[in-house]
Amino acid sequence: MTGRERFEFYLNQVQDLLNKAKVEENPGWWLFSNNLRTPVFMLEALSKLYGKLHDKSIFNKLQDRFKQLEDVLGDIDHYNAYESEYAEAAMVAAVNVTYLREQKEMHVQLLNELLSDEKWIDSETPRVDKIRKKLSEVNWLSEQEEMIAIKKFYLKAISSIQVFYGTTNGRFTDMEEEVHEIRRKLRWLSIYTQALRGSIQLSDKALPESYLEKYLVPDIVNSPFNKLPEPVGCRYVLLLEKNYFLALSWLIAELGKLKDAGLGIIVLEEASKHNRDDADSERLQSLSAAGKPSLQDYMTKASEITKAFFEEKNLEKLVGDVVDSRPKTMDNH
Q1: Mapping DSSP to helix (H, G, I), strand (E, B) and coil, where does residue 303 land?
Q2: Which residues are bridge partners to 201 per DSSP?
Q3: What is the DSSP letter of 199?
Q4: Between the CA of residue 329 and those of 231, 232, 235, 325, what are the distances in Å?
Q5: What is the DSSP letter of 1?
Q6: CA-to-CA distance for 286 and 223, rounded, in angstroms?
Q7: Of all helices (H) and strands (E), which one includes residue 152?
Q8: What is the percentage of the chain residues whose pLDDT exceeds 70?
Q9: CA 64 to CA 47: how far, in whole Å?
Q10: Nearest-CA neighbor of 244 among 195, 190, 199, 197?
Q11: What is the model's pLDDT at position 123?
Q12: What's the CA gap between 249 and 50, in Å, rounded?
């Protein structure tokens, strides 16, 4: 499978959604509700990866295009999720739920403007057609060369994550800039396995070390997100060691829970300050006194599980070899 084919797979999904959204009264909300974010995320991942393998001038621009879309979709998701969570919460003032709804609606409008201004819809030359033209100009590597380069990319990405983690000294003090950010970086390692559509597979030859058992819980082992695409049309594949990949998935999931809980506190603080709602501010400050975790509690827990993961050197053990995936045949000579 070529890089061009991978892009086409997700571009087709995006184009189909955009075509359907044209007839909608509110295309931005329709696209958010119909999960435009997933194929855009995959295209951003591919652009991020291929920018290190090919012409940076092409793929960096593509990454910026897809990131623009994904960021706005992510903002809509952020406010929509907390609006839904707090709509029936007795501790949250109605005026603050209204603020979250207004922020969601504002970002939906921003998405509609972006779709029009950047010619994703309602254009004689749609953005997807322009992207396809750019991709046709790329001098793609052979499959084997590409997979060897992707292995190097993975190793460099892991090294970059380790450097970033080192700047925290093993103790997170900011939910957005540290906890959320390291989760983003770790999550890319997982997203690439889906975006590459079968060119990354899991190897389970190594017996799991005893300390890994805490990560190999049913929710992680049985998660559909940890079932990688079959290597259809892929001769060469990069192997990742299964147990360390599952450990990575566990950390991403747990950091996600802590991040969501922490950002839930932050978004209420944001709403309270906007509305000058001292009552909700006082409720937030009294959470720990009521026996509920505070923002610092969530960051402390995130620090503990991340420190253990990195001290075990799980990322260093993740990446295996590039192998020929064709079935071995018996030599009759």
Answers
A1: helix
A2: 239
A3: S
A4: 18, 19, 15, 12
A5: -
A6: 36
A7: helix 143-166
A8: 93
A9: 9
A10: 190
A11: 75
A12: 23
Q: For the chain, what are the domain ranges? A: 1-140, 142-325
Sign for the CA dihedral angle at 208, 211, 215, 216 comes to positive
The CA-atom distances, in angstroms, between 9 and each of 4, 70, 149, 244, 264 are 9, 18, 21, 28, 35
SS3 content of the chain, % helix, strand, coil (to 5): 70, 5, 25
Q: In CATH, what class is 1-140?
A: mainly alpha
Length of the chain: 333
Helix (H) or strand (E) holding 326: none
Report residue 300 as tokens: 């402390």
Residue 187 neighbours by CB under 8 Å, 6+ apart: 252
Report how far residue 258's alpha carbon sits from residue 77's, in angstroms, rounded to the nearest whole number.
17
Measured distance CA(298)–CA(305) in Å, rounded: 11
What phi and psi, each to the nearest 5 degrees, are found at residue 12? -60, -40
- Residue 238, SS3? strand
HEC string for 80-105: HHHHHHHCCCCCCCHHHHHHHHHHHH
Written as six digits, the tokens of 128 are 């997807």
Question: Rg (Cα) of the chain, in Å, rounded?
Answer: 22
Distance CA(222)–CA(217), nearest Å, equals 8
The pLDDT score that the predictor gives to residue 273 is 83
**Given CA atoms 120, 122, 128, 130 in this order, what sign does their dihedral have?**
negative
Residue with the two structure tokens 């652009």: 47
The DSSP output letter for 241 is E
Q: Which among 35, 88, 280, 302 has a CA at the least distance from the CA of 181?
A: 302
Region 121-134: mean pLDDT is 89
> Across the beta sheet with 200-203, what order do the strands follow?
200-203, 236-241, 319-324
- For residue range 187-212, list pLDDT tens digits in order: 999 999 999 999 999 998 766 788 99
CA distances from 50 to 4, 11, 12, 54, 232 (A): 10, 15, 19, 6, 20
Total-model pTM: 0.91
